[in-house]
Amino acid sequence: MMSRLLFFFVFLYTVTTLISTTSGACQTSCGSIQINYPFGIDKGCGSPQFQGMLNCSSTDLYFITPSGGYKVRSIDYDENTMVVFDPLMSTCSTLQPHHDFKLSDIQNAIIRPSYDTVFALFNCSSDSPVQNRYKSLCFEAAGHSCDELYSSCTSFGIFNTTSGNNTASLGNSTVSATPYCCFTSYDTVRVMSMNILDCSHYTTVIDDGKMRGVTPVDWSYGVELSYSVPEIGCDRCRKSGGTCGFDAETQIFLCQCSNNTSPRDCGGVSDKGGCNSRSTNYAMLLLGMLVSFICAIL
Questions:
Q1: Three-state SS across the chain?
Q2: What residues does each domain of the chain span?
Q3: For residue range 143-159, what is the model confidence (pLDDT) as tens digits?
Q4: Per the confidence metrics, is the pTM higher than 0.85?
């Protein structure tokens, strides 16, 4: 009899624990950055299209892409923009080995660099496509030139030396010649890799209309991503006090409330007239099992 009672209390504890944890809350922040719809870190949170794109490591939030993780600096939910920074990207003060910036197909469709993001390609060879057939892909960046970048940035200054391919003959004298550079858009680096572009380094700058007259040292380095928000009734869910999420198995929208989930909001019922709650149904099933167990041992 004692063994039956002991097993009963263990079973009761397990059931109680499962019931209390069936409706887990979504993580709402990572460090100082708020996590709201359409983004989510936990399974079933946010929009299914954005699932797995964010990762919270300690106090830092990262945007995950095929080319690596990029630290998230800010998310503007009013403007639908996210600013990320590549720690392996060259800047005016730091020179890094080149690598490609790649997004997945779904990311290219719903969250991609905005038109305010300028990709600056440095130390390009004379055979680079953007200096020949596709030269039209390069544009003027708020009045700034290659010479200015190579002369004012300590990191890119090494390319401005009088040696090798960086020299040009003028009569009987040799003068310093800066290597080619190109200010271009994301579409260029999306189609052509850095190896195809034949440029050794790149950086990204956010041109929000404040680049003109500002030295490269004070530029806003990073990538501004512009995203689209699926309209599936999230506003109604939020206004009722819920958190927008989805069923991890069916990918169907769910409004996550404090003690249940609903297909619409936290104050409503399902279209069939009853409360549509996976956690509630699960709890009822476990309670039924508990009652059956009690009847069996008595």
A1: CHHHHHHHHHHHHHHHHHHHHCCCCCCCEECCEECCCCCCCCCCECCHHHCCCEEEECCEEEEEECCEEEEEEEEECCCCEEEEECCCCCCCCCCCCCCCCCCCHHHHHHEEECCCEEEEEEEECCCCHHHCCCHHHCCCECCECHHHHHHHCCCHHHHHCCCHHHEEEECCEEEECCCEEEEECHHHHHHCCHHHHCEEEEEEEECCCCCCCCCHHHCCECEEEEECCCCCCHHHHHHCCCEEEECCCCCCEEEECCCCEECCCCCCCCCCCCCCCHHHHHHHHHHHHHHHHHHHHC
A2: 2-26+233-297, 86-227
A3: 888 788 888 888 888 88
A4: no
